[in-house]
């Protein structure tokens, strides 16, 4: 396996550890927003002649494929049936709950 070298990883972890939980959560939101903007920018570069509504449609279709919502529904149903508490977070939560 070819593992990518990450020379700044230790510094990144140290910076995260210095943050409060609220700061880490805000950073997660910031990174999530940045990734959505980067994704949209890439689509606009790839399809420069499409109107915004067509770009948004492609964006939503691709997000749907990425997050395999049907699998997520099965997992949630299994957890619900078992009476297990759970919390969905990160990009999965933002793409399911948010509107890009």
Throw out a few tags for this protein.
single chain, 100 residues, mainly alpha, 73% helix
Output the structural class. Answer: mainly alpha
Shape: flat
Record field, number of beta strands? 0
- Whole-number tally of structural domains: 1
What is the residue-mean pLDDT, rounded to a whole number?
81
Distance between the termini: 35 Å
Beta-strand percent range: under 5%
Helix content estimate: over 70%
Question: What Rg do the Cα atoms give?
Answer: 17 Å
Unreliable stretches (pLDDT < 50, length at least 5) are none
H/E element order: HHHHH
Q: What profile does the largest beta sheet have?
A: none
Helical stretch tally: 5
């Amino acid at each position: 396996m070819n593992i990518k070298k990450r020379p700044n990883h230790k510094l990144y972890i140290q910076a995260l550890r210095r943050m409060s939980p609220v700061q880490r959560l805000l950073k997660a939101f910031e990174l999530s927003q940045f990734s959505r903007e980067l994704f949209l920018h890439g689509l606009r570069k790839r399809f420069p002649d499409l109107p915004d509504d067509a770009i948004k449609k492609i964006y939503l279709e691709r997000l749907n494929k990425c997050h395999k919502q049907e699998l997520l529904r099965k997992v949630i149903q299994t957890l619900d049936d078992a009476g297990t508490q759970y919390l969905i977070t990160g990009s999965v939560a933002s793409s399911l709950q948010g509107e890009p």
